């Protein structure tokens, strides 16, 4: 397995170049690029400039692990307004285009967002419908769409069985799951998600979770790797069971009050322990 | 496309001879004929609405062109914003033959200019008056789900679609309300019945909502003239 971390961990004051140097120095193999989250990678960034980002990554001795985005929280594929849905689909298309330009084969999509106003059944149906043609686009580009399990935040596809059925309904070889082992909280066990969805996993986000904080407090439920309640030996064993040998991508909250660069090193070391099974 | 009153009258006048030419005199209103979902293509603002009606009535009911067929018993026109003249012609022919027309407004998310045209078109072509759009969720402040409360032909609550096109009707014409706003009307038109939905039902049918499907089935059974 290879390890990456998101460019959204890079402080804007550091800039992309210095951030890549830090990522390399901390021992990562790659970087996850977040479309729309960072000033250097926006929807308006031209193909030429995207290629330039790719060259910067390569010059730093890294590769792009995948293209993610947080833009679908504001423009979900499941929106009632057709104009918003069209915008959401365009975001996925741009992710696919840029993934191809950057030499990676995976994109992360937050597929749907259940709200009080837009109920579950609508979200489910719209996502299934939207992902079929997007899957075709992805396949043509040699890319796979990984729908992230955002569980509690999305209020959608809360169990591995549900996610499995959802992917069956989409029924497209280019659409799978970008599994986040830190998003499952107390609704289940990450290792069971890995077992059930193994071959359909496009990438894995890693972070740890403090279950006792629940979702209602004012403190984050997330924490650094190995500090929370995820059963990392069980996760590692499940990864071996299903033969997952792809990217592990750290998705951390930048919480170091001092020496924020240290979080990159600590996370990389924890990921090494997970990869090598020294747990 | 804007339809002037003159264009509208020309097109409705053409409808009667067309019907006679194709099928002779109008069929007796008790004879069972077809149910049609008229898919207006680019003039349908919510594709899922078409899918919703097709899920209930069957895909065989879908038509994109009615020029070569007799007026059906039931004609559903989902999620319209612009209404092409051929669709108006089909609706008038259906009403004239004693049928039921369900016209669903799809203007909830239309731009101001499109909504204005939609409003004018409904008024001029069908004498249906609509009020400015209302965003139900900003109005309710999220304190409760703004269900569409249908009172005819059965009492059911159906999920809203975020925005409603309020309708103005005569006494007894309003068959559904949401947050006190008239959301659907039923109007007898000579021999036929026109139902206008200011909040789309199709997407709710598409999700499999039991009450929405029940309402549609009961409407089709309850409206006299066919079946």
How would you sum up this structure in a few lines?
By secondary structure, chain A is of the alpha/beta class.
The secondary-structure class of chain A comes to alpha/beta
Low-confidence stretches of chain B: 8-32
Number of helices of chain A: 9
Cα-based radius of gyration of chain B, to the nearest Å: 16 Å
What is the strand content of chain A?
15-25%
- Determine the structural class of chain B based on helices, strands and strand pairing: alpha/beta
Low-confidence stretches of chain A: none
How is this fold's topology laid out?
The complex is a heterodimer of chains A (279) and B (227).
Chain A: E1 2-6, H1 15-25, E2 30-35, H2 47-59, E3 63-69, H3 82-102, E4 106-109, H4 120-141, E5 144-148, H5 151-154, H6 160-170, E6 175-180, H7 190-197, E7 201-206, E8 208-209, E9 222-223, H8 232-242, E10 247-250, H9 261-276
Parallel strand pairs in A: 1-2, 1-10, 2-3, 4-5, 5-6, 6-7, 7-10
Antiparallel strand pairs in A: 8-9
Chain B: H1 5-23, E1 35-38, H2 47-57, E2 62-63, E3 74-80, H3 85-96, E4 100-105, H4 112-126, E5 129-130, E6 134-135, H5 136-140, E7 148-150, E8 156-158, E9 163-164, E10 167-168, E11 174-178, E12 181-189, E13 192-197, H6 202-206, H7 210-222
Parallel strand pairs in B: 1-2, 1-3, 3-4, 4-13
Antiparallel strand pairs in B: 5-10, 6-9, 7-8, 7-11, 11-12, 12-13
Helix pairs in contact in B: 1-3
Could you explain how this protein is built, in words?
The complex is a heterodimer of chains A (279) and B (227). Chain A has 279 residues and is α/β, with parallel strands linked by helices. Helix content of chain A is 42%, strand content 17%. Chain A has an 8-stranded parallel beta sheet. Chain A has a two-stranded antiparallel ribbon with strand order 8-9. In chain A, α7 links the parallel β6 and β7. The longest helix of chain A is centred in the middle third of the chain and has 22 residues. The two termini of chain A are 16 Å apart. In chain A, 47% of the residues are buried. With 227 residues, chain B is α/β, with parallel strands linked by helices. Helices cover 35% and strands 23% of the residues of chain B. In chain B, β1, α2 and β2 form a beta-alpha-beta unit. The radius of gyration of chain B is 16 Å and the shape is globular. Chain B starts with a helix and ends in a 5-residue tail after the last helix. The interface between A and B is medium-sized, with 14 and 16 residues.
């Amino acid at each position: 397995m290879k390890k990456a971390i998101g460019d959204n961990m890079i402080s804007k004051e550091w800039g992309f170049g210095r951030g890549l140097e830090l990522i390399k120095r901390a021992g990562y193999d790659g970087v996850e690029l977040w479309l729309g989250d960072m000033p250097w990678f926006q929807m308006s960034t031209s193909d030429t400039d995207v290629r330039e980002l790719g060259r910067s990554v390569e010059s730093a001795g890294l590769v792009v692990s995948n293209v993610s985005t947080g833009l679908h929280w504001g423009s979900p594929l499941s929106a009632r307004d057709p104009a918003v849905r069209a915008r959401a689909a365009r975001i996925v298309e741009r992710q696919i285009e840029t993934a191809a330009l950057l030499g990676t084969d995976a994109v992360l999509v937050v597929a749907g967002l259940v709200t009080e106003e837009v109920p579950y059944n609508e979200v489910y149906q719209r996502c299934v419908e939207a992902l079929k043609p997007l899957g075709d686009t992805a396949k043509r580009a040699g890319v796979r769409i990984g729908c992230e399990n955002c569980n509690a935040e999305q209020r959608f596809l809360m169990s591995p069985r549900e996610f499995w059925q959802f992917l069956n309904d989409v029924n497209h070889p280019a659409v799978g799951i970008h599994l986040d082992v830190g998003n499952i909280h107390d609704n289940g066990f990450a290792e069971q998600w890995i077992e059930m969805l193994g071959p359909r996993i496009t990438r894995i986000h890693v972070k740890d979770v403090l279950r006792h904080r629940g979702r209602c407090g004012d403190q984050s439920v997330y924490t650094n790797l190995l500090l929370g309640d995820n059963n990392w030996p069980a996760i590692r064993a499940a990864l071996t069971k299903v033969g997952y040998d792809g990217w592990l991508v750290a998705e951390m909250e930048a919480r170091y009050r001092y020496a924020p660069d240290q979080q990159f090193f600590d996370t990389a070391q924890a990921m090494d322990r997970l990869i090598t099974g020294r747990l | 496309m804007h339809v002037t009153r003159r264009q509208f009258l020309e097109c409705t006048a053409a409808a009667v001879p067309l019907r006679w030419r194709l099928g002779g005199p109008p069929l007796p209103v008790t004879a069972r004929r077809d149910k049609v979902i008229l898919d207006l293509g680019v003039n349908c603002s919510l594709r899922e609405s078409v899918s919703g009606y097709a899920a209930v009535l069957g895909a065989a009911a879908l038509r994109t062109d009615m020029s070569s067929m007799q007026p059906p018993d039931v004609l559903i026109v989902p999620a319209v914003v612009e209404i092409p003249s051929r669709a108006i012609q089909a609706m008038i022919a259906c009403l004239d033959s004693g049928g039921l027309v369900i016209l669903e407004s799809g203007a909830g998310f239309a731009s101001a200019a499109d909504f204005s045209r939609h409003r004018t078109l409904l008024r001029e072509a069908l004498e249906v008056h609509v009020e400015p759009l209302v965003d139900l969720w900003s109005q309710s402040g999220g304190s409760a789900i703004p269900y569409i409360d249908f009172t005819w032909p059965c009492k059911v609550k159906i999920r809203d679609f975020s925005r409603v096109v309020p309708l103005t009707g005569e006494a007894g014409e309003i068959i559904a309300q949401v947050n006190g706003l008239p959301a659907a009307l039923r109007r007898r038109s000579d021999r036929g019945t026109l139902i206008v939905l200011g909040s789309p039902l199709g997407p709710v049918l598409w999700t499999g909502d039991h009450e929405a499907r029940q309402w549609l089935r009961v409407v089709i059974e309850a409206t006299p003239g066919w079946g």
